[in-house]
Each structure stands twice: as structure tokens, then as C-alpha cells.
Design goal:
Cytochrome_P460_sp, 4 helices, alpha+beta, two-stranded antiparallel ribbon, 18% helix, 222 residues, Cytochrome P460
Length: 222
């Protein structure tokens, strides 16, 4: 019996020359993403932004897997990030990276940088064997390739989960199973030695493609 779980999604502006929106596995399953939201929020002046660029993101296999998602820390405090992830609740430290699929990721900035998103910044990536390229990034207004807004989904997570979506965290569920996710995670093109796909993985990816054709993302706040 398949288990449905809420998958997490993840600009300031679309990068020049970025391809037109299209259905792409890496582009976006995002954990129930969000409709463009016109709420602007000015970061607090006392909190310094963490520098994040294309080179900040890596192959999933080079991160640490906790249950069904991956974590890292851009400031080198990986142990603290892992501790919160393994506990399943609590506030993630600055620099934390939380990623479910190759094409979407969230990064935690220092306290007070953006209270509206509890200091998380959302990213949509174009990934290839050459690495990652940021396609979109931002706080309350990142819209993925399916017209879903990342903040709107993650904002539904209960406070003790610090905007991170898992199956019982309060986020809207979407019809993507962990079996599909596991297969998708194996296809990260940035990995020098990607995991081999079993026949069941290939079947799961075909099923995922069919789901993506009909999946409707929840609307974000107006």
C-alpha cells in the first residue's frame, strides 16, 4: 500500500537564460509548493546574510541522509543540523541546508534575517553533471515550475518543526510516495557515482512522471 507524504519544495528573480518552465523531475516536486505571493519582506538590518551561490550545493550523496531527506551546513556546523534533523523537531542552526530532491532546497540564515520565513531561504535549482545553477531564490515569493510557492507549504508546518515538512508536520500532503522519492534521489546528475537504478526504481520514476502530469499545487496566501 502506498504511503502519501508531504514533499517539501523550495527567487529573487529568474536567472538570465533560464529555460522556460516545464515538467522536469529535478525542477520540482517540491514538497507541496506555492502560488506566487506578493508579500514582500525586508530582511532585518542587524542579521548578516549567508553568501549562497551555485557552488554552495552538492550531490545528495555528499550530504547526510536523515530518514528520507538530506542535510548539510554551509557554515560548517553540520553536527548541530544533524542533531535537530534526527530529533525531528526544534530550531535549525544558521547555515543549515535541508533538501529532499535534487532540484529544490532550503537554507537557514542567521536569526532575524527574515522573520516571515523563520530565516529560511528557498531555492529552485537546475542540476546537471556540471553542478548546480540557481534558477530561483527568495523568501515568501519563490514559485516553482508548477506554479507552487514554497513558503505557502512550509508555513503550514507546526511551530516545533521550524518550517520543515514531513508526513505528520502539518504540511499539505501531495501524492508522491517515498518509493518515488527514493528513486528520484538516486538520479542526481551531480553525483560522480550515481546509485544504480533497479527495475522497481525505473517503475517508480514512470509512476512519478504520471503523477506530475496531473498534480495540482496548493495556492499560497493572497
Amino acid at each position: 500500500m502506498k504511503t502519501t507524504l508531504p514533499v517539501s519544495p523550495t527567487s529573487r528573480a529568474q536567472a538570465p537564460g533560464a529555460p522556460q518552465a516545464k515538467r522536469n523531475r529535478f525542477g520540482s516536486i517540491g514538497a507541496a509548493s506555492l502560488l506566487a505571493c506578493a508579500i514582500g519582506f525586508t530582511p532585518a538590518l542587524h542579521a548578516k546574510e549567508i553568501a549562497v551561490g551555485d557552488g554552495s550545493f552538492k550531490c545528495l550523496n555528499d550530504m547526510v541522509k536523515v530518514r528520507h531527506f538530506y542535510v548539510d551546513n554551509l557554515l560548517g556546523n553540520r553536527a548541530a543540523t544533524i542533531k535537530v534533523a534526527e530529533r525531528g523537531k526544534g530550531k535549525y542552526p544558521p547555515g543549515s541546508v535541508v533538501q529532499l530532491i535534487p532540484g529544490e532546497v532550503m537554507v537557514k540564515h542567521p536569526d532575524g534575517f527574515n522573520p516571515a520565513t523563520r530565516d529560511w531561504e528557498f531555492f529552485e535549482l537546475d542540476v546537471s553533471k556540471d553542478g548546480s545553477r540557481i534558477r530561483r531564490r527568495g523568501f515568501v515569493d519563490v514559485v516553482n515550475r508548477f506554479g507552487g510557492n514554497c513558503f505557502a507549504c512550509h508555513a503550514k508546518a507546526r511551530p516545533e518543526f521550524d518550517m520543515v515538512c514531513e508526513i505528520d508536520h502539518g504540511c499539505d500532503p501531495i501524492p508522491i510516495t517515498r518509493r518515488m522519492l527514493a528513486a528520484l534521489q538516486k538520479t542526481d546528475p551531480r553525483c560522480s557515482a550515481p546509485a544504480a537504478l533497479a527495475d522497481d526504481d525505473r517503475l517508480a520514476l514512470k509512476e512519478l512522471d504520471e503523477v506530475l502530469k496531473t498534480m495540482t499545487m496548493p495556492a499560497g496566501p493572497k
